[in-house]
Each structure stands twice: as C-alpha cells, then as structure tokens.
UniProtKB/TrEMBL annotation:
Lineage, opening ranks: Bacteria, Bacillati, Actinomycetota, Actinomycetes, Kineosporiales
UniProt xrefs under Pfam families: Ammonium_transp
Subcellular location: Cell membrane; Membrane
Keywords annotated in UniProt: Ammonia transport, Membrane, Transmembrane, Transmembrane helix, Transport
Major subcellular site: membrane
Family of this protein: Belongs to the ammonia transporter channel (TC 1.A.11.2) family.
Domain called Ammonium transporter AmtB-like: residue spans: 7-415
Protein name stated in the entry: Ammonium transporter
Organism per entry: Kineosporia corallincola
Membrane topology summary: Multi-pass membrane protein
Keyword Transmembrane (UniProt): yes
Region ranges (Disordered): 405-440
Length: 440
C-alpha cells in the first residue's frame, strides 16, 4: 500500500464528486426559470440513490468475481462492502475502500448525465425509480465489462469483464461506460417521453448563462480527478492523463467556437461551455494512450463534431433537451474510436493506432466495445422507460409542464419575487404597515 497513491485517489474521488453539483449548475442554467430546481434535483437525487445502491450491491455487481461470460460480477461477494475494511484488502497500491469511493462517484455522475435529455417533462418520482433500475441493470454490468480487470478487485484468480479482458479495448476513464452509456440512454428516454410542449417552434433559451459557465468550470476542474485519478496513483500515468485532459479540452473549446463563428457569425458563451464538455468527454477514454499533440487533434475535432451533432435533433425530430446525445454520445464515440487512430506506443498504454503503424487491430476493438455498450444501453433503457411510462407514468402532464415543473413537483421556485426585493418581513405585516401610513 502506498500512502501517496492513496491520498491522490481520495482527492480525485472528491474532485469527481464535485462534478455532479457542477453538472447541476451546467444543466440548471440551460433550462427555463420554471424548471431549474427540478433539473438540479435530478442530479442531486443521483448522489443519494446511486451511493446507497453502490454500497449495498452495486460495487459487487461491478467488481465482484465474474459470474460467467464477463457480463456481471457476483452481487453477494462484496454485499454491503463486506470484507473490504481490512488493511490487507487493497486494489493496486491503495485500500479497497479508496477504490470503492472513487468508482462510486463515476456511477453517480453517469446517471445524472442522462437527465439532461429529458429536462422539463419527467416526473421526479419516476426519475428516482428509473435511477434505481437503470443503475442496477445497465450501469453496474457495463462497469464490470469495462473496468473490472482479471485478478484485481475480486482476488488474484478472479475474472473480470469481457471488454477489458477479452476484447482488449481501451477505455481509460469511461468513454464507453460513462459517456456512450449515458448518451444512448438519453436518446432512448427522449424517444420514450416525446417532445416538450411547444418544441421546436417555441424558443427554449438558457435562463442563466453564468450558471452554465460556472458548471462547465466545475466540471473541468473535477475532471482532472476523473481522468488523472484513473491512474490509481501519483505517477507518470496520472501526469500524462492530466496534460492530455487540459490539451484536448482547450482545443475542443476553440473548435466549437470556430464552428459557431463561421456557421452562425457569433461565438457564444454557451458554445464555449459546451465545447469544454465535449473535449472532456472525448479525451476521457484516450487519456492514457495518445500524445499531447494527439490530444489536441482529438479535442479540436470533438468540438467540431459535437457542435455539428447538436443540430441533428432538429433534423431527425427527437427532443434531446440539453444535448446529451450531441455531446456525450457523439463525443464518447469519437474519443473511443480515436484511440484506434491516434494511439501511440510511446504512451503509457503502449499501443499503436492506425496512424502510428498499428493497422486496424486496435480500431476494430474500440468499435466493437463502443457499439456494444451503445446497443445494450439504448435497448435496455427503452424497455425500462416504456415500463415506467406504462405503470406509474414517466411523462409529466401537459398542464403541469406548461405551468412549471418546479412548482408542481417540488412546490418551490428558484427565483421567488414575492418577498418584494428581499424583505424579511412577513407579507401580512408589511401590508398592515403600509396601510397605517395612509392618511385618514
């Protein structure tokens, strides 16, 4: 056990945890004033629900010894995190519980990401039910496929997931398990719930762009824990991932703004924030396998591809409210496939892609892993979404949607002007005082 590695992973876990409140600001600023609290609550509810599931059985499903075919871990092996508090229980060079905590925050934000696709129109209770079911039968198994390596988390003779150990596709920090997974699920739920009332004829402009920028900044800050923390140590791999992360993200920001400048005539703050997220998404799977120059190329193209992809919803007719498909699905696919093109054996991953003399060997592996996760997540999410819609109802009724989801679902308003500009006096008392000042 290494104390420096342990400190770095615990710090990284805290950074990744911050990303979910950051996502709440990012998404919350993008919706209208009558929806901001509900949008933020969908992220915060993930913090509560997914954490409890992770402790009870989620970690065991993801990182327990494989039950067959590399598909899912043994849910009873670490049920309730049994046996992981011992000083002898380690993963790589860190305590097992440090690894448990680090992976928990990945599970949390993956679920939260999906919520942006169905902003303004989903019942909060139905969303909570969806969170439980989707995390259990989609995220936990996919995390096993991608992140559970043979002989690591479940004992020296344990078997892990099929993508990591049989296919040998590279996904350093979650391009498939997190972003393709969430993006495909977002598309499926957008189809299940249908279009928002008035979309696309009415404008659905962000109500608070400073919130969006703040959220993007928090996501960028936390993402260094997401990527560099995935090295599971304070080492060269972490440093490579850190530099690749900042390089790709900066390039993506520029790429997105260039598209806006030439297409629309104006680079926007929303575009800058979205470009940041697109770059972060794209470099996540590739952070260990490409050079800094490769990261810049991946990043700038991610900005271009995602900026163009967000317009597909208008052409194809699906209402992905906050562009989860355009940014996370497209960005995740690009970053995962780009490994097969730009990977270099001089990187810690030690693999050459097509442009570095490696042929298509790594490219086809990346493609199989990416599209397998896409198909699994999309199909299962369709089934889950339709089941919830047909039983307890997933879509908010039209009257409540028009009136405002915050008031109907949470009995709150993000911007309450009833206090008369911030006065702390009760309304009735203020009225009596005003009346007493009227001359007889």
């Amino acid at each position: 056990m290494d104390t420096g590695d342990t400190a770095w992973v615990l710090t990284s876990a805290a950074l990744v945890l911050l990303m979910t409140p950051g996502l709440a600001f990012f998404y919350g600023g993008m919706v209208r004033t009558k929806s901001v609290l509900n949008m933020m609550m969908m992220s915060f509810s993930s913090l509560g629900i997914v954490t409890v599931l992770w402790v009870i059985y989620g970690y065991s499903l993801a990182f327990g010894d494989d039950l067959g075919g590399g598909l899912v871990g043994d849910p009873s092996q670490f049920f309730g995190l049994t046996g992981l508090m011992s000083e002898d229980s380690i993963v790589a060079t860190i305590p097992s519980l440090a690894f448990v905590g680090f992976q928990a925050v990945f599970a949390i934000i993956t679920v939260a990401l999906i919520s942006g696709a169905i902003a303004d129109r989903a019942k909060f209770g139905a969303w909570c039910v969806f969170t439980v079911v989707w995390a259990t039968i989609v995220y936990f198994p996919v995390a096993h496929w991608v992140f559970a390596f043979d002989g690591t988390t479940a004992g020296e003779d344990s078997v892990g997931g099929w993508i990591a150990n049989k296919l040998l596709a590279i996904d350093f920090a979650g391009g498939t398990a997190v972003h393709i997974n969430a993006g495909a699920a977002g598309l499926a739920l957008a189809l299940v719930l249908g279009k928002r009332v008035g979309w696309p004829k009415e404008p659905f402009r962000p109500h608070n762009l400073p919130f969006v920028m703040l959220g993007a900044g928090l996501l960028w800050f936390g993402w260094f824990g997401f990527n560099a923390g995935s090295a599971l140590g304070a080492n060269t791999l972490a440093a490579v991932a850190w530099v690749n992360t900042i390089a790709a993200t900066a390039a993506a920001l520029i790429g997105w703004l260039l598209v806006e400048r030439f297409r629309d005539g104006h680079p926007t703050s929303l575009g800058a924030a979205s470009g940041v997220v697109a770059g972060l998404v794209a470099i996540t799977p590739a952070a260990s396998s490409v050079s800094p120059i490769g990261s810049v190329i991946i990043g700038v193209l991610a900005g271009v591809f995602c900026a163009l992809a967000v317009g597909l919803k208008y052409k194809l007719g699906y209402d992905d409210s906050l562009d989860v498909v355009g940014v996370h699905l497209i960005g995740g696919l690009w970053g995962t496939l780009a490994i097969g093109l730009f990977a270099t054996s001089t990187s810690p991953a030690g693999v050459d892609g097509l442009f570095f003399g490696g042929g298509i060997d790594q490219l086809w592996r990346q493609a199989v892993g990416a599209f397998a996760v896409l198909a699994y997540s999309f199909i299962l999410t369709l089934i889950i979404g339709f089941a919830i819609q047909k039983t307890i109802g997933f879509r908010l009724d039209e009257e409540s949607e028009v009136e405002g989801i915050d008031g109907r679902e949470h009995a709150e308003s993000a911007y309450d002007s009833s206090t008369g500009g911030g006065s702390t006096r009760p309304v009735v008392a203020a009225k009596k005082t005003a009346e007493s000042e009227v001359p007889a």
